[in-house]
From TrEMBL:
Claim: Iron is one of the keywords in the record: yes
SUPFAM superfamilies with a match to the protein in the record: Clavaminate synthase-like
Cofactor names: Fe cation
Protein name stated in the entry: Protein SRG1
Pfam family, one: 2OG-FeII_Oxy
Stored InterPro entries: DIOX_N, IPNS-like_FE2OG_OXY, IPNS-like_sf, Oxoglu/Fe-dep_dioxygenase_dom, Plant_2OG-oxidoreductases
Length: 367
């Protein structure tokens, strides 16, 4: 049975950012303001080339061209995009994920409707435990675990969605009425696409096609994160989500507006919005499993003075008792293990600590 139960002792519980904006705050409170050297630059570089769009229906059919595009996307950008222009069941853009534009619109609609509920209703699903701890599931925002921690300008609803046996349904909103059904269907559709990507990642690594799917298998955890980024009066001083890499195998991101930025070779780039497209990127766990062949991606979300932003994110990870280390078939005399063996529970504790300070947990496990 997978384990998931983590709680974090926090120094304080931040205010709900949506409430600050609703109250007409003219300047962000000081705990949201970044040091000068970390503030987002007004000018961000344009992409030197478009982020690849992968057609998952063609990939599923064995297209060598699509497989090569996937390999190139993972080697050069660590991400891709997918969108539903072919309607069959790192960052990458992909098409052919089997989700109609109308379904994706409904998923974004219920996300917006949840965050538009009165605060009293949303707080029924609070992540606060016993007044001083935060659970992994529930409604809230930053875990304040460090003195002088700079906070993100967003509010979140985190929900474990897989395995179903570990769902905490008392934290699953009953309003809007279709919320639970939409989330369950979205999870199923994304899982099918994720397994297809895992099979092709295994082929890229010269592993048996089912190697990663079987290894992840019943040992996997999927978490849904609904993010609300309100308008910010000082987008030049405040980030919606600080620079980080994901503590995941892969992450799937669906957003309604621009704001996501990625870093490559020390340069920040805007990730453009493609209608009805989802973004998939590589996380820490996959970097370690692949012995560094795939790299987790540094990214952040900037704020906007005029527009709010919503995103629905699925994070694929492993159960907390997993011993995390490179796949044995990817370790030899020519390429020894690049990462030390560590229990995922211990790694995630490091991850949350380093996220709070703006550093990278994976640097601490490199050999």
């Amino acid at each position: 049975m997978a384990s998931y139960d983590q709680q974090f002792k926090v120094l304080e519980v931040p205010p709900i950012v949506q409430e600050l904006v609703g109250a007409g705050v003219q300047e962000p409170p000081s705990q949201y303001v970044l040091p000068v050297q970390d503030r987002p630059a007004a000018a961000v570089s344009e992409m030197p080339e478009p982020i690849p769009i992968i057609d998952l229906s063609r990939l599923s059919a064995g297209s060598a061209e699509e497989f090569d595009k996937l390999r190139s996307a993972l080697e050069n950008w660590d991400l891709f995009l997918w969108s539903p222009s072919h309607l069959r069941p790192m960052f990458l853009r992909a098409v052919g994920h089997g989700m109609e534009p109308s379904f994706l619109a409904e998923a974004m609609k219920v996300t917006r409707e949840f965050f538009n509920l009165p605060l009293e209703e949303k707080q029924k699903y609070s992540n606060i435990v016993d007044g001083e701890k935060l659970g992994m599931d529930g409604y809230g925002n930053d875990m304040v675990v460090k003195e002088n921690q700079v906070l993100d300008w967003n509010d979140r609803l985190n929900l474990l969605v897989e395995p179903e046996s570990l769902r905490t349904y008392r934290l699953w909103p009953t309003q809007p009425p279709s919320f639970r059904d939409i989330l369950s269907e979205y999870t199923i559709k994304c899982k099918a696409a994720a397994n297809l990507v895992f099979r092709n990642m295994a082929k890229i690594l010269n592993l048996q096609e089912e190697h990663l799917v079987n290894m992840i298998g019943d040992n996997s955890i999927t978490q849904a994160i609904f993010n609300y980024y309100p308008q910010c009066p000082r987008p030049d001083h405040v980030l919606g989500l600080k620079a980080h890499i994901d503590g995941s195998i892969i992450t799937v991101n669906f957003a309604d507006a621009e704001g996501l930025q990625l870093q490559k070779n020390g340069v920040w780039y805007n990730v453009p919005i493609v209608p009805n497209a989802l973004v998939m990127n590589v996380g820490d766990i996959m970097e370690i499993l692949s012995n560094g062949f795939f790299k987790s991606l540094v990214h952040r979300v900037v704020t906007n003075a005029e527009k709010e932003r919503l995103s629905l994110v699925l994070v694929y990870t492993l159960e907390l008792e997993t011993e995390l280390e490179p796949v044995s078939e990817l370790v030899d005399d020519k390429r020894p293990a690049q990462y030390m063996k560590i229990k995922l529970h211990d790694y995630m504790e490091k991850y949350h600590d380093t996220y709070a300070t703006g550093t990278l947990a994976i640097d601490g496990v490199k050999i």
